[in-house]
Design a protein that fits this description.
The structure is a homodimer. By secondary structure, the first copy, chain A, is α/β, with parallel strands linked by helices. The first copy, chain A, has 16 helices and 13 strands. Chain A folds into 2 domains: 217 residues, 3-Layer(aba) Sandwich (Rossmann fold), CATH 3.40.50; 183 residues, Glycogen Phosphorylase B (Rossmann fold, 3-Layer(aba) Sandwich). The two termini of chain A are 29 Å apart.
């Protein structure tokens, strides 16, 4: 296990986006926990939503007067393949073949992290299944690492694979609290008195979400050959079957019959060690070579945060057609930019879209296409939906709201 | 081995940056090779200069009427560790321990790629040492894959580790031509009659190098907390000892005594599977936590092409303090943006900087600092140097010049 260096941040940067009252309340709440030592543990310091959340929240907890650290576990590729299976099993894939060699490698990897764990924390927050067994494996030494333990599950686990859930279920015991994004994700055998429901959030001050001049958006879109004067729809998501990128392409093709000059951009992170993602990426690129209005880009082409920010701002409609979704940060990111969002009716997306008011929830490719056409035909309605969506995000899905949930929970478990 | 999908590109996009005559000449030259089937093979489709070159050049060769493909080899982490050793050994590290188990795994990996090789090419270009042994291993089947073979070495191999060079030397035999960046990189035992010297190039139409509005540059720098009104120096480079990032920080600290408000940004790519790079990155972050004018960012924080473009455009001075360097694309990138560049006197950097005219070549931290101070003190001179540098790049280091070299070489080897 190793600590991730963090950059100082100030909670005052959020005052222009949320009410002063909310920030003052948060500071007052945190004041009672001055010096509380908090450790977040997750699987990786980069890539994925959890790393993004921690990159913002760890230094802000520090700024609020806590002593917050972030550690990541050491693990090999085989471990991450196993925990990817766990992830898929949580999301309801019942075909996963789960066996004792996987369990053994999982335990062995985490055991290899025990000696390098930092010690002396008041609260330890363990994110997702990868490091979940750590407190069980620590046994008596658990108290040296942290007095109180919280498990934060970011995954849509409304309908998990029973064997895999049975396997992880045994690690819950040492946790003082468990945090889920939605109450629907809480399995009946999770002790209800230790459950907190709290949604993730986006950072409005990050390079992905900060305001940008219109000329910047145009400049950067032009570099990616996107014509901002023509209709433009986008999905920003990993190339993962759960995100249904092929479905988005099919919906776009239907829209194109009505709007021949519509453009589609799929942008997502790809990892070196994600052959499935690379495969999907390549499939889409190959299937769309004849259509110069489809753009498929990824971090491998050095598309970063700022560029994603521009794409979302340039879009007329943002899509997040997931089939399963823990939360889907991109939905709030797009809404924060005043865009109407069409999302798959799945997991955390249903929290973020008020159907018919800030966007649409859809159940099929055809519905996705029909709603996109509806929005492209009525820019005024799109604008209103986008504005309503932005206010929903301001109230419920900015960093400061999540920090308030965390600090309240720390006060509860640490009993201050 | 697998083919990398490519995006259509047009050579006409380069007309505004280079003379019409140069483009017309290139088209005329390529016209004699219509339909020539060309295959590039390298180690990876993303990350690093070679992938960047191929991303631009493969579709442009296509646009010029050739049939150009790009394939990457399948390999595991152990293979890439071995070939990283080869890279370091080429660059003069004599401490590399080279043994027969490394040789065996190298051969075994490439043998595993033989059956999936595409066939029927006129010319195959093999980049760098990773896939270098392919034609030797193919033996008689070599002609089925390609009639003519070219090895392109991008590495500074002026003073290689003798054992490692001895190992790779045996793979040269089947190649009709070998291309090096500088004549100084050509070892005496390379057959001189088959050597071509040709430098790499930058793509002025890519998101990393395209023109941007000043407001865009400011917007994006502000998101990374860089104050464009204060002096700003940057090095864009992997976190690799050969790039001397620690030396850059020390030079900056000397500059800071004279210019207390100077800011330094180090930006570079990091790979998941590059513990050395992660280590250096973390060392620099930790050593600079007290200095809020030092920024260290990477692709892991989703810093992409456009952001790098902004950083280079915002800089007063761009540094590339390499100790060894095959070419160093960032030198031409910065010069193309009209910036004076201070480069380590190493390999391909010496091609790109005319010492005292477009920037400075330096041999030490102290010299790097002194030259930076000189440039910060004289903005008018910096501007002139930047403009001179831009014209040097236009003449010698844009994509179109490299394509002309390639097409001429194809004509030579394929005998059309």
């Amino acid at each position: 296990m190793r600590l991730v260096p963090s950059w100082p941040r100030s909670i005052d940067d959020f005052r222009p986006m949320v009410s002063n009252t909310a920030i003052n309340e948060l500071q007052k709440l945190a004041w009672r926990l001055q010096g509380l030592k908090v450790l977040h543990i997750n699987a990786t310091e980069y890539g994925g939503g959890v790393a993004e959340l921690l990159l913002t929240q760890v230094p802000l907890m520090d700024d609020l007067g806590l002593q917050a650290h972030w550690a990541v576990i050491d693990a090999d590729e085989a471990f991450f393949e196993i925990t990817k299976s766990v992830h898929n099993a949580f999301q309801g894939n019942k075909d996963i073949k789960w066996d004792s060699t996987m369990e053994e490698h999982y335990f062995e990897t985490l055991r290899g992290n025990l000696d390098s764990m930092p010690t002396g924390y008041d609260v330890v927050i363990v994110h997702d299944p990868q490091p979940m067994a750590l407190p069980v494996l620590l046994g008596e030494r658990r108290k040296e690492v942290g007095k109180h333990w919280i498990w934060r599950c970011h995954i849509d686990c409304a309908d998990p694979h029973p064997d895999v859930w049975g396997f992880v279920r045994q690690f819950l015991e040492p946790y003082d609290a468990m945090v889920f994004t939605m109450k629907e994700f809480v399995q009946p055998d999770v002790p209800a008195d230790r459950v907190l429901v709290s949604a993730p959030s986006i950072d409005p001050t990050s390079p992905k979400n900060s305001a940008l001049e219109a000329v910047t958006v145009q400049d950067i879109c032009r570099q990616y050959h996107i014509d901002v004067r023509r209709p433009f729809i986008t999905q920003v998501s990993r190339f993962d079957p759960w995100k249904d990128p092929h479905g988005v392409v099919r919906a776009y093709q239907i829209v194109k019959e009505k709007f021949p000059d519509v453009q589609l951009l799929l942008a997502g992170s790809l990892a070196h060690d994600d052959p499935e993602g690379m495969g999907i990426f390549n499939e889409i690129v190959s299937s769309c070579t004849d259509d110069r209005d489809v753009y498929v880009v990824s971090n491998l082409q050095q598309v970063g945060n700022t560029t994603i920010n521009c794409f979302q701002r340039a879009a007329d409609v943002v899509i997040q057609k997931s089939l399963r979704e823990g939360f889907g940060l991109t939905v709030s990111e797009a809404a924060w930019k005043g865009k109407p969002v069409i999302g798959g009716r799945a997991g955390g997306i249903t929290l973020q879209i008020e159907d018919g008011r800030t966007g649409f929830l859809v159940d099929s490719v055809e519905e996705c296409a029909a709603r996109t056409i509806e929005l492209l035909e009525d820019p005024e309605r799109s604008r209103t939906m986008g504005e309503t969506g932005r206010e929903l995000v301001r109230e419920q899905f900015l960093t400061t709201r999540e920090l308030t949930d965390w600090v309240s929970l720390f006060a509860d478990v640490a009993g201050s």
